[in-house]
Amino acid sequence: MLTGIHIGTSGWSYAHWRDIFYPEHLAGNELLPWYAKTFKVTEINTSFYHLPLVSTVEKWAGEVPARFKFCPKISRYITHVKRLLEPEETLPKFFDVFDHIHKRLGPVLIQLPPTLQFEQERAAHFFQILKDNYKDYTFALEARHESWLADEPMELLKKYRIAWVIAYSGKRWPAAEEVTAKDIYLRFHGPDGHFATSYTNKQIEGYAKKISDWQQQRHRIWAFFNNDGHGYAIKNALALTDLLK
Question: What Pfam families does its record include (predicted)?
Fold first, then answer.
């Protein structure tokens, strides 16, 4: 049973998915409705690079069923340029857009650069602003510096009920299967972390077992395949879904 389990891909607008998942003739503005026939959730990757217009996110929400969920990735200006500093100044612009569809969202993804080490004061201040100003949202943090793989950052995430992103990317980035919130957020970047390789059936079966166990513990699971090359994300997401039905 897929109750509490949300499986999709990291975005939907990939030209190289034509003739793999999308019909060749499908117009660009028809991709999301087509995607939503198969999946019930997607990450929004474009918000990391360029903040969409309010009219755009409202259009997306109107193109999919009411129970479909979006997980937007927070702007790289916040994470990679300001590096979590001055959140009082940087966060409002992002949330001014997504407030318009906040009931249609799953966790907001915060992806940190590999060079951003854990600093307790900086992280705690950022998390406190999220708690104080954006209490209607849930969050997931993907950290890529090994300093985050320690007790102090994990306890801080638990305190603020922010999901630690469990990222499966081979040895490209440090990773840990830590559960820090009711939501469990998984990202699959490809077995080698380079987005263009497929997980094996055996690997998918192992992930399905873990997800099933977490589901029995009453966690909400969000699983996104980011290995978009050759349409592997679609193939792997469908395989995982089939195993969990």
Answer: DUF72
The strand pair at 163-168 and 41-44 is best described as unpaired
By C-alpha distance, which of 74, 218, 200, 228 is closest to 142? 74
Alpha carbon 95 to its chain's center: 17
Residues of the chain with pLDDT under 50: none
Can you list the positions of beta strands (E) in the chain?
5-9, 41-44, 69-72, 108-111, 139-142, 163-168, 183-188, 220-225
How far apart are alpha carbons 233 and 178 in whole angstroms? 23
Q: Which domains does the chain have, with CATH numbers?
A: 5-244 (3.20.20.410)
Supply φ then ψ for residue 87, to 5 degrees: -65, -25
| Furthest-apart CA atoms within the chain: distance in Å | 52
Where is 240: in which H helix or E strand? helix 232-244
Which tens digit of pLDDT belongs to each residue from 182-212?
999 999 999 988 889 999 999 999 999 999 9
Question: pTM for the full model?
Answer: 0.97
Closest CA to 109 of 15, 226, 238: 226
Contacts of 65 (CB under 8 A, 6+ apart): 36, 40
What does the DSSP 8-state code read for residue 18? B
Q: What is residue 2's predicted lDDT score, i.e. its pLDDT?
A: 87
Q: Are 225 and 191 in contact (CB under 8 A)?
A: no
Rounded to 5°, angle at Cα 109 from 105 and 115: 170
Do 196 and 232 contact (CB within 8 A), yes or no?
A: yes
